[in-house]
Design a protein that fits this description.
With 501 residues, the protein is an alpha/beta fold. The protein has three domains: 100 residues, no CATH class; 86 residues, Winged helix-like DNA-binding domain superfamily/Winged helix DNA-binding domain (Arc Repressor Mutant, subunit A), CATH 1.10.10; 226 residues, 3-Layer(aba) Sandwich (Rossmann fold). Helix content is 45%, strand content 11%. A seven-stranded mixed beta sheet has the order 6-5-4-7-8-10-9, sandwiched between helices. It has a three-stranded antiparallel beta sheet with strand order 1-3-2. Helix 17 links the parallel strand 4 and strand 5. The longest helix has 24 residues. The protein is globular, with a radius of gyration of 26 Å. It starts with 5 loop residues before the first helix and ends in a 10-residue tail after the last strand. Bound molecules: S-adenosylmethionine.
Length: 501
């Protein structure tokens, strides 16, 4: 007999729940569910007791960590324990996305969202108390450790630790192997010391900035409310400063280091797609200028890939030291200033590197800035550019959340990618928005975070077009990459016959 995998079993639960909901809707003469309806559905009315089978099918589909009829703890205890005994992880039953929106009770969603900040707080507790590292470094990670023991080593109250850990277990970060004994799950391994997830989550200030974000947007002072200055955002409200994030970090080296690690984490997760999905070898022989190149991970890769190219990492003076150390660490054989150099260069000053066959790269830079600043940055590059210069904006293209009908001849679906080596994005299938809805949540959350930090944002293609044409540049091509980013290749517009350069 075929042994079913966890994926097989979860699919069965999913199909069973959907089939049941469909059947119950028909049996009870309810209207069809739609995420695009502008009317409430009878199932949204919490004062009506749903038929038991429909109620339970919805609970199965949501894999909900709580419900109206179960108290938080009793439900979590039963459910988490049962699931960890059967070797399954709760988080995998928690189906996100379109299906969640379609079937979840709107009030439950409100409760879940209004308390969602606790997930971040509980993760902070897990990490900052050292509990996560205790769980990661134990001799037998699969056995787990009783919360009482963890609390004693961390010097915190176990009465407070247990609800924190159980909540995290319900969200998939931990599993409760027996009552009050927890172990890490696959998801939580990303939070171990040295991993990108840990670097990203430990950058200081995220909770403070997200709280102050409300005050940024709804500020009583209209000068603030309508300000798009990079130094009038939630960050300044949270840290009581009038400096931009980068100016502030200049004077706070410890935070600067943590920030650099978190930026690097985002860079790392997008790196594979940038390298794999663009034909970089076609640029061998070009001079590549990595503007605001940070610690220079992309530049180091490019100099290794392109033996006839020169690569220059530019950034703020205080970041240059990090980049130099990084180059020395990763390429001990290379002499700085030979094929790779690091130099201080302000994005808002004229670009000194100019000449034939140049590529200016702006990776994850423009999303940090409001439109006016982006236009100024691009104008400096446009002024330094020649006819054959390429300007690469490597940033996300944040599709709107609209439904889009793709003409049949242009459709790409999963079947088209069978055995494909070249990456192509699939077209959104029916009822899935252009940005794939909840799949875009990390990027859209980052977009809001950019607003809170700098009045920056992730941009849609039409928003990119505004900024690029505002700087007097043309778009030559757009390359989609795996890992949320794209390369928007820009160039000078063709010269008119009567123009002299
Ligand atoms: C989000 S990071 C991106 C770094 C790098 N391109 C990457 O992808 O890892 C933004 C970078 O812009 C740099 N930066 C900020 N303001 C700058 C300025 N006025 N001139 C030059 N660099 C600046 C920061 O120091 C930081 O390294």
């Amino acid at each position: 007999m075929k042994t079913l995998s966890e994926l097989d079993i979860l699919q069965q639960h999913l199909n069973n729940a959907i089939d049941t909901i469909r059947d119950e809707i028909k049996r009870n003469n309810l209207p069809p569910l739609s995420n695009y309806s502008t009317e409430p559905h009878p199932m949204d009315d919490a004062s009506i007791a749903l038929p038991p089978r429909l109620y339970e099918a919805r609970r199965l589909l949501m894999g909900k960590p709580y419900s109206a009829t179960f108290s938080w703890f009793s439900f979590s205890e039963t459910f988490c324990t049962v699931y960890s005994f059967s070797g399954m992880q709760f988080e995998k039953a928690f189906l996100q996305g379109q299906l969640q929106c379609l079937v979840q009770s709107p009030f439950d969603r409100v409760v879940e969202q209004s308390l969602s900040g606790y997930e971040s707080s509980c993760l902070q507790i897990l990490i900052r108390s050292g509990v996560l590292d205790q769980l990661a470094e134990t001799d037998d990670p699969s056995a787990g450790i009783p919360a009482q023991e963890l609390a004693k080593v961390a010097d915190i109250d176990s009465w407070k630790l247990v609800p924190v850990m159980r909540y995290l277990a319900s969200q998939g970060w931990l599993s409760e192997v027996k009552e009050d004994t927890f172990r890490l799950t696959r998801l939580a391994l990303e939070l171990r010391w040295g991993n990108n997830g840990r670097n990203w989550i430990t950058t200081p200030g995220k909770p403070e900035i997200s709280t102050a974000f409300v005050k940024q947007v709804l500020n009583e002072d209209p000068n603030w409310r309508y300000s798009r200055q990079p130094n009038q955002a939630a960050y300044q409200l949270a840290f009581n400063t009038d400096q931009t994030v980068f100016e502030y970090l200049k004077h706070h080296p410890k935070e600067r280091h943590l920030w650099a690690m978190s930026i690097q984490a985002w860079g790392d997760i997008t790196y594979v797609g940038i390298i794999a999905d663009y034909p970089w070898s076609s640029l061998d022989g070009y001079t590549l200028v990595d503007c605001a190149g940070g610690q220079g991970k992309l530049s180091i890769a490019l100099v290794k890939m392109l033996p006839n190219s020169q690569v220059i990492i530019q950034d703020r003076e205080e970041v240059g030291t990090l980049a130099k150390n990084n180059v020395k660490h990763n390429m001990p054989e290379v002499i700085l200033g030979d094929r790779i150099s690091v130099e201080a260069q302000d994005l808002f000053m004229p670009q000194p590197r100019s000449g034939p066959k140049h590529v200016y790269i702006l990776k994850l830079v423009l999303h940090d800035w409001p439109d006016l600043e982006c236009i100024t940055i691009l104008q400096h590059l446009a002024k330094a550019a020649r006819e054959d210069t390429k300007i690469f904006i490597i940033d996300a293209i944040s599709e709107p959340c609209t439904l889009r009908t793709v003409p049949e001849s242009e459709k790409v679906d999963l079947k088209d990618l069978e055995y494909a080596e070249e990456y192509r994005k699939i077209s959104p299938p029916a009822f899935i928005p252009a940005n794939f809805g909840c799949s875009a949540k990390p990027l859209l959350a980052l977009s809001v975070h950019m607003l809170g930090l700098f009045n920056g944002r992730e941009r849609s293609m039409s928003e990119w077009e505004t900024v690029i044409s505002g700087a007097g540049l043309d778009i030559a091509a757009v390359h989609g990459l795996r890992g949320t980013l794209s390369i928007i290749e820009c160039q000078l517009p063709p010269r008119k016959d009567n123009e002299f350069h």
